[in-house]
Amino acid sequence: GAGVSQSPSNKVTEKGKDVELRCDPISGHTALYWYRQSLGQGLEFLIYFQGNSAPDKSGLPSDRFSAERTGGSVSTLTIQRTQQEDSAVYLCASSLGGYGEQYFGPGTRLTVT
Amino acid sequence: DQQVKQNSPSLSVQEGRISILNCDYTNSMFDYFLWYKKYPAEGPTFLISISSIKDKNEDGRFTVFLNKSAKHLSLHIVPSQPGDSAVYFCAASNPYSGSARQLTFGSGTQLTVLP
Hints:
The structure holds two protein chains of two kinds. Chain A is mainly β. Chain A has one domain: Immunoglobulin-like (Sandwich), CATH 2.60.40. Chain A has no helices and ten strands. In chain A, the strands form two sheets. In chain A, strands 2, 4, 5, 8, 9 and 10 form a six-stranded mixed β-sheet that branches. A four-stranded antiparallel β-sheet of chain A has the order 1-3-7-6, with no helix packed on it. Chain A is globular. Chain B is an all-beta fold. Chain B contains no helices and eleven strands. Chain B has strands spanning 4-5, 10-14, 19-25, 32-38, 45-51, 56-59, 62-67, 72-77, 86-93, 103-105, 109-114. Chain A binds chain B through residues 4, 31, 33, 35, 40-45, 48, 50, 56, 58-59, 91, 93, 95, 98-107, and chain B through 2, 4, 6, 36, 41-46, 49, 89, 91, 98-108.
């Protein structure tokens, strides 16, 4: 009965470095979402995976951001050449199908120095 | 352009009283609205939702009201308990957006219930 897990919980990186954030969705959930929450802001949609369909990348803020989902389960969000404005909490959610209730992980707090 | 707005960043209420959290939206295409609750160092957890065909949905101490003409929804918690202290996010979805249930979130309201 494990929920959505994310790793690492905290990541501090230097400006210009690449980072990888990992999300393990709830087993059996076909839909997976990435959001980010910047300080004082609401959650901002980044990308959505549903089954074997092409991901919806409409929320990615720049081409430095990419994500993949291997085997329809684990997902990795990669940020290349990090900038200070990338500092935020990155949240992953999964759901049973595209219209199911979204269950969120605890997030990864990214700090770019 | 914020499509979902929570204009009160914080709210304090006495235990046992009613808490009313407000949310306004601008996109008339939104057809489904949700409230999430978030404790520190945890992800948001789903609380209650309402479809645009309804104007009220109740679940125990929690009731969500939707006023489509005013593009306004509110969450009522009665009676409020200290364990309700958390950040509450309003969210909305648009069935015509790219993702089936991509959620647009407000910036949250920190509720503090005083014992």
